[in-house]
Automatic annotation (TrEMBL):
Keywords, ordered alphabetically: 4Fe-4S, Electron transport, Iron, Iron-sulfur, Metal-binding, Repeat, Transport
Gene3D superfamilies: 3.30.70.20
Entry GO terms, CC: cytoplasm
GO molecular function: 4 iron, 4 sulfur cluster binding; metal ion binding
Pfam family, one: Fer4_7
Protein name from the UniProt record: YfhL family 4Fe-4S dicluster ferredoxin
Keyword GTP-binding on entry: no
InterPro entries, per the entry: 4Fe4S_Fe-S-bd, 4Fe4S_Fe_S_CS, PSI_iron-sulfur_center, YfhL-like
UniProt cross-references to PROSITE patterns, sorted A to Z: 4FE4S_FER_1, 4FE4S_FER_2
Top-level division of the source organism's lineage: Bacteria
Segments forming domain 4Fe-4S ferredoxin-type: 1-29
Length: 84
């Protein structure tokens, strides 16, 4: 499941540099997560770093429109980082 940044985002700039997949960028009003690049940090960390560094609780949530299994997230990580 890719993650989603909600409108609770205060644009603090904490999440973007922490994303190992370069999935976070500034949108029109708030930061956005590219679901094609988000692996929920599988392959890098035990839990999503964007959620860990976000100062506002429940701002970065599971995107209900983009459900993926851990295996699918792992496959995405492999494609993004190992040129398979």
């Amino acid at each position: 499941m890719a993650l989603l940044i909600t409108h609770k985002c205060i644009n603090c700039d904490m999440c973007e540099p922490e994303c190992p997949n370069q999935a976070i960028s500034m949108g029109n009003e708030i930061y956005e997560i590219d679901s094609d690049r988000c692996t929920e940090c599988i392959g890098h960390y035990d839990k999503p770093t964007c959620q860990s560094v976000c100062p506002i609780d429940n701002t970065i949530i599971i995107n209900p429109a983009h459900k993926e299994t851990n295996e699918e997230l792992w496959d995405k990580f492999v494609v993004l980082h190992h040129n398979v």
